[in-house]
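Dear colleague,

Following up on yesterday's call, I've attached the two folding results inline so they're easy to grep. Please treat them as preliminary; we haven't cross-checked anything against experimental data yet. The first protein's sequence and structure tokens come first.
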Amino acid sequence: MLRKTSLFLAIFTLLLGAGYGLVVAKFKIFPYAALNSAWDAVMGDNANMLQTGPWTIGIYEGTDPLDIRPTEGARNPVLTEDDVTDIKAAFVADPFLLREDDQYYMFFEILNQANNQGDIGYAKSTDGLDWEYGQVILDEDFHLSYPNVFKWNDEHYMVPESHEVSSVRLYKASDFPVAWEYVGDLLAGYLFVDPTVFYFDDMWWMFSTTPRNDVLNIHFSEQLESGWTPHTMNPIIRDDANISRPGGGVIIRNGRPIRFAQDADPEYGIQVRAFEITDLSPTSYAEVLIADDPVLAPSGEGWNAAGMHHVSIIQAPGRHLAAVDGRDR
């Protein structure tokens, strides 16, 4: 009888635990916010710094998008947590650039110290060198980062990372650059990390990884807002945290897409490499490493001494302008 009772209790405990786990995953009832607050109370302002850097943002430029260097006229870093005026920020990171009517806009993650959650903010510049912080423009009940911003058919769109709610969400500007409306989910039901959307060869494409940083997946669609389908070769990269995680927006160079990958092994956010995509279709994929040397690497001193993990490059008058981020430890 005792053995039967013990077996029953073991099965009951297993089922109870599995059921609770499903409820936590679906309804987010586990006290994550309370635990984060307790951690912050113990660690103080350094709670996030221990794992993150902190990250700050700089400006690079070059005549070739794959040969960029710190801009002489920019006082890097051009944006730090101290520039954020409407919330108390732990860091700023993941910058994406856009040029509109001779004005430069930068969209980026702000880690909010109040809840250890990422919000999306923006800054603007008339020359791409001196930046003025604007405000938080997107704040959800979950973590946001990596604000992939682009223009399509005279409308501005944003695809930030929202893997905390197991989705890839599309936003559309109702009053660019400060107001954005949720359009819908492009993908759902999986942990899509750093989704990177681009248009090439009459098709929409999306790279993404997972929280482990060691796989790269592709989805594609003929329409931006719907119809996204997984690539038949997924994952196109497996078990390689050195080159899997996206490291910024895809650019087109000499008629071919260039993918930027951040190096996350042996630690997160080391450097950024560039890959030229030589074959891209719904059923095939191939890429080559453009150079052994990374596009971005830690400098060994100052604001980017210990690592760099993101680049956004746009065409500017007479040069390619790049927003990058770096950490000092």
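Below is the second protein, in the same order (sequence, then structure):
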Amino acid sequence: MKKCWLALLLAAVSALAAADTWRFAAIGDVPYSERERTELPKMLDTIAGGKPAFIAHVGDFKGGTERCDDALFEQRFRLFDDSPVPFVFVPGDNEWTDCQRVTAGAFDPAERLDKLRSLFWAHRQTLGAKRFPLSRQSGDYPEHTRFRLGPVLVVTLNLPGGNNNWGPLPWPGAEHQARNDAVLKWVKTSFALARRRKLDGIVLLFQADPGFKHFSQGLGHRGYRQFLEALRDETLRFPGQVLAVHGDSHINRVDRPLRDRTGRVIANFTRLETFGYPLMGWSEVVIDDEAPQLFRIDNHPWK
């Protein structure tokens, strides 16, 4: 009997050791204040100490009224590029669409986006002291990338807050229309790739809170309606699990807000919203292909 129990214990330990897991960390809407600018490098070092596969910043690396100067952009680039582990960044509205505000310097948003591209997506790889290659969407949107992490496809999108730069008119502006078409194409081709390769999951990284609740009520914001329709339809066709990671609302939460056309919750979809000013912290996403839920999320407030 004793040998039997020992054999079972050894089998359990062996099974645990054989289980594969992958991890990454997500942050966003930081730094906004002087305190956060001081604390963020310390928090990034702490995150890197856990040796995640990468750190993702889902946009808004400055406050909305802070000037969109080259010097600030370059400082944030150096901070992210100094990360000991690979670093992935997607743009938020504070970095480009809202730079037209007088308090932010009255910049041309398109010019500021080009500046971001020249810094953060100049090469087909992540930022950081250790880097890995990225697949990039062809054309004018180098910020749209994707890569494999174990059984999961990770996809980045330029989907900023502030109604996705729709513009002030009842119809979409030219910039929104062109970029939104590219976003929709990248979403659909990424899901098709994941299905073709029989992957277990997809992670989407973008900045905006697209208004899941309003969308489920038929009241979705114009700037995100097409994206949410594509996300809903592709998720329903995808046999694996989908995780959307975004910021924008500054409400750290994990839930299932996406619904089908009848109003039922889509069970294979999870939303993670990162911490945001005035609360600092990070979310650790653990991918375990042997667990009932592919994604496990642990939130870590920064005290």
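For the second protein, one point worth flagging: Residues 1-19 have pLDDT under 50 and may be disordered.

Best wishes,
A.L.
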